[in-house]
Amino acid sequence: MRESFNFNFDEIKESLEKAIKENQIKIDVFEKAINNYKKLGFELEKILEFAAKNAKDEDKVKLWALFYEISLQNISELCDRVKRYGESLKNSELYKRFYDEDKKVPRGIAFRILELTRLGKREEVFYVLLREFVNAQQELKHDLVNAFNPKYSIENFKILVYSFMSGLLG
Amino acid sequence: MRAKFIFEVQNSQEEYRELPVYYRTVFMAFLKKALSDYNSEYFRKLYWWEDKKNKWQKPFVYAVNLPNMNFLDDKVLFRGDIVLNLSTSDYEFFVNIYNGLISKNLYPYKLADHCVVKLKRSYLVKEPDQFDSTMTFKTFSPVLIEKKEGDDKIPVLPYEEGFEEILNDVIDFEIRNIRILRGQNRGLHKRISFKPKNIKKTVVKHKISEFEKNTGKEIMYLTGFSGIFELSGHPEDLKEIYQNGLGFRRAQGFGFIEVAR
Of A65, A34, A63, whose CA–CA distance to A50 is shortest? Predict the structure, then answer.
């Protein structure tokens, strides 16, 4: 199940400062704050995209510029996420469809995806990946789906797919 | 994209399994449960408009295959696994419903009193490589085309006068609504022409809460058609119809079409 997102900067800042003052620093609280900060970046990107699509004239140009600024910042975070997602799928049913454990080599389908990605064939890559996920009955996380969003350039799309594949097979 | 989900009925000692005659409604509730459990935010966006039901066209169609089915009064008897065909042009919808349907928390799921199911397997169905300007289709579930007369909706069948005109209005509205969801405000590229090949009138018993609330009757009768027909138009429009279904109540299990080979 996907969790909903709530971000209150003042509340987070206050609780972190209080923890420092009381000498009760807990790493997981800091980690949570950083994760929420990253999530906020993605939420801002979505809102800016919506606003830019609905704006007119000069506002539209300015909003798109802001959108690209935050989007670029988010790409590197997304790369990390899809790589970690790939790593988390090791030893899953999906992994077995991509990697021959007896021969210790990636299967043909993995090379096919890499080649289609190199050629920038976004739709084909999505279809082949989706087919493998469906056959393996493996959950397909939204982070990976985001890599196929046409708002990202072909170069960014390639980087995201390579990140996922390197996490899965690396 | 188009997928099949195959469900096995659990703990049934009987050779024949049973579902209510309005089994499409049962599956509609099942899909809504899968979607809302997985992503309640997306579910609300699709089905609700603040505290009112969202009547916006849904970007998907489904059809249920019950093998060796027989109708008996208010029940439908069948033997074997249940196949749910699902088709959409919307990636976001597909990923959400797919993740919902494969979630282990959803099963065992009680479709009806004597019908508890578990997902057996799922796979993607290959779509045509190319859509032409004229294609032959067959129905997997009845197609409902209706016209408005005052407050009532009257079914219109292919041999009736003005059918093609009404069909075009219905498709144009449907396609425009679905394209708006992905930021394109565009209806049909070109008028669709309809040529019946082997079709028959179909009357279906259906159940929805709104009808029950408004009329006090539990079951509603819907008139549509099923069989084989030819559509001519812009290939992109035909692809959209193929992926999201044809006619009314597509998200309630009607209007699923397949390319006839």
Answer: A63
User: Mean pLDDT across the stretch B217-224?
Assistant: 87
Residue B69 sits at φ, ψ, to 5 deg, of -80, 145
| Dist. CA B132–CA B134, nearest whole Å | 5
Q: What torsion do the CA atoms of B35, B41, B45, B50 make, to the nearest 10 degrees?
A: 120
CA distance B11 to chain A (A): 23
Is 80 exceeded by the pLDDT of residue A151?
no
Q: How far is Cα B171 from Cα B59, in angstroms, rounded to an integer?
A: 13
Q: Does B180 touch chain A (CB under 8 A)?
A: no
For the record, the structure tokens of B92 come out as 């976001």
Q: In this complex, which of A53, A134, A145 lies closest to B122 when CB atoms are compared?
A: A134
Please give the Cα distance from B59 to B52 (Å, whole number): 19
Residue A89 near residue A95, CB atoms below 8 Å: yes
Helix, strand, coil % over all residues of chain A, rounded to 5:
75, 0, 25
CB neighbour list of residue B186: distance below 8 Å, 6 or more residues apart: B175, B176, B179
- The ipTM assigned to this model is 0.81
Residue of B nearest to A143 (CA): B95
What span, in angstroms and rounded, lies between the C-alpha atoms of B201 and B133? 26
